[in-house]
Design a protein that fits this description.
Shape: globular
Order of helices and strands: EEEEEHEEHE
CATH architecture: 2-Layer Sandwich
Number of helices: 2
Helix content: 10-25%
Oligomer: single chain
């Protein structure tokens, strides 16, 4: 895998779960990642912790690492390389992919270990 450039984004993020039949939330985006995904079983939301939807089951304390993109769809193994490196370091992740790039959320308590593992694997991590 080639060296990737990964940006540590500011602020705390939350993962939220709403029932599948709930109205999808409309959240302010600003400079933050907001992802709303509906499946037949749930609505999952990734957003800044301060705007997590009311009434949702919320897990906060996450930090966001974003691979600099855009990435071509023909590239393979990017998420596998990052996830494998973090798994080997014992860092749980929540992954989100978008049209342009990949994003990985790690718990704040694991952030130092995550950054060290990615750097040791040869990736550039910038805050």
């Amino acid at each position: 895998m080639n060296r990737l450039t990964v940006d540590l984004r500011p602020g705390e993020y939350a993962l939220a779960r709403l029932p599948a039949d709930a109205e999808p939330p409309v959240l302010p985006v600003g400079d933050s990642l907001v992802s709303v995904t509906r499946t037949p079983e749930e609505i999952s939301v990734v957003c800044p912790a301060a705007v997590a939807p009311a009434g949702a089951k919320v897990d906060d304390g996450w930090r966001l690492l974003t691979v600099r993109g855009p990435l071509e769809f023909t590239l393979t193994g990017i998420m596998a390389a990052l996830a494998g490196t973090l798994a080997a370091a014992g860092v749980p992740i929540f992954a989100v992919s978008t049209f342009d790039t990949d994003h990985i959320l790690v718990k704040e308590v694991d952030l130092g270990r995550a950054v060290a593992a990615l750097r040791e694997a040869g990736h550039d991590v910038h805050s």
